[in-house]
Amino acid sequence: MSGHVARKRFGQHFLVDTALIDAIVRQIDPRPGEPLVEIGPGLGALTQPLLERCGALTVIELDRDLAARWRKREGVTVIESDVLKVDFAALADAAGKPLRVVGNLPYNISTPILFHLLEVADRVRDQHFMLQKEVVDRMAAGPGGKDYGRLSVMLQWRYAIEATLDVPPEAFDPPPRVDSAIVRMRPLATPPALDPARLGALVTAAFSQRRKLLRHSLGRWLAEQGFAGSFDLQRRAEEVPVAEYVALAQAVGSAPAAPGA
């Protein structure tokens, strides 16, 4: 495809580095018959080689001009929509098997997209995304560093996350002002049994004052929940591993509600 001008409001940056495209497609390794969904196909840098390998795929495209172009391609099913409004569970049900989701995500809404997909992780086999490198670093970060935060915990409790490739700005047209990276996300086969909303509230409270000890932030939240168990609050939020946040969310969920709550 050619003749399309990138639209800033859609966060469009088109991948043009052929060697990098080949490396990404090899990592995804699509096979015929797999329910492959691409978010934001753009001009088809990834779409075309993916289509050559798997024969058919679904694309989600908000830009109506690009959506119209893709409708003309054999083997491509087009969903013209904001990705945040797409029912991925319905797509998986229609396919009869877990989805494989890929895409060069719009950097301005990448985190909301990740949380939208988190809700249907049980319907997904894996995800390969191009994202701002800073975001990938946060997604994959372990405890103890500045990159480790709410995003790390809220994704790692449900996925195995691996940063696989760094991508320089010159790999795009137009070049973004940030470095990018490829991340692979595989939903855990047996995730912890918990209420994601409770974990989200807990982690949000913990990192609300990340420079202070947890007794100033998470401690107050736990008191409001009527939690009478033990948890080391003499740490900062970034020092607590994902498994401990998960265990605490489970413990809070099993505790009696506070009076008046």
TrEMBL record:
Known role: Specifically dimethylates two adjacent adenosines (A1518 and A1519) in the loop of a conserved hairpin near the 3'-end of 16S rRNA in the 30S particle. May play a critical role in biogenesis of 30S subunits.
Protein name in UniProt: Ribosomal RNA small subunit methyltransferase A
Start and end residues of each Ribosomal RNA adenine methylase transferase N-terminal domain: 20-189
TM ranges: none
SUPFAM superfamilies in the cross-refs: S-adenosyl-L-methionine-dependent methyltransferases
Stored Gene3D superfamilies: Ribosomal RNA adenine dimethylase-like, domain 2, Vaccinia Virus protein VP39
Binding site for S-adenosyl-L-methionine: 13, 15, 40, 61, 82, 104
Keywords, sorted A to Z: Cytoplasm, Methyltransferase, RNA-binding, rRNA processing, S-adenosyl-L-methionine, Transferase
Pfam families: RrnaAD
Major place of residence: cytoplasm
Top enzyme category: transferase
Organism expressing this protein natively: Pseudaquabacterium inlustre
GO MF annotation, one: 16S rRNA (adenine(1518)-N(6)/adenine(1519)-N(6))-dimethyltransferase activity
EC number annotated for this UniProt entry: 2.1.1.182
Subcellular location per the Swiss-Prot or TrEMBL entry: Cytoplasm
Family the entry assigns: Belongs to the class I-like SAM-binding methyltransferase superfamily. rRNA adenine N(6)-methyltransferase family. RsmA subfamily.
